[in-house]
Amino acid sequence: MHLTRLSIIILMLLAVWSCGKIEKPQKPNDLIPKDKMTDILYELYIINAAKGVNKKLLEDNGVNPENYVLKKFDIDSLQFANSNNYYAFDTKTYKSIVDDVKAKLELDKTTFEDIQKTEGLAAKRRRDSIKNAKILRIKEKTNDSMTLKKSPKPNI
Predict the structure, then answer these.
(1) Separation CA 61–CA 50 (nearest Å)
(2) Fewest C-beta in 10 Å: which of 27, 131, 135, 152?
(3) Mapping DSSP to helix (H, G, I), strand (E, B) and coil, where does residue 151 land?
(4) pLDDT tens for residues 56-110?
(5) Rounded to two decimals, what is the model's pTM?
(6) Where are the beta strands (DSSP E) in 9-86?
């Protein structure tokens, strides 16, 4: 019984000791601006989604998604890691960045859904016009054959 109490006390002390104050990371000299960080994270979300959908296609074309984004924004991985760490420590700022990314993704989703609807309607109209043309040809053939059947037979 005495050993159990001692174990509990030691665990509580370890828990309190391990919950020391975490210091805010220093602001990097090459901190990526918030709006550029938003664009970078947006691109990373998009490219990671593409990687999830068809990783083989990216690999076959020699595309490394992370390197592609870093090159596109002319940054290196250390600069990105330091900036990401700095922004992530301030949860309000990071949430703001992530919310901006989310808003851009939602706008893209809405745009693509609208395009799909428009293309779907165009395809439906095209199918309907083909179907109507076929029906019209069948009716014309039927009318022609009926006209031939109704025409009087010549007297011989």
Answers:
(1) 13
(2) 152
(3) coil
(4) 787 788 878 788 889 999 999 999 999 999 999 888 999 999 999 999 999 988 8
(5) 0.61
(6) none
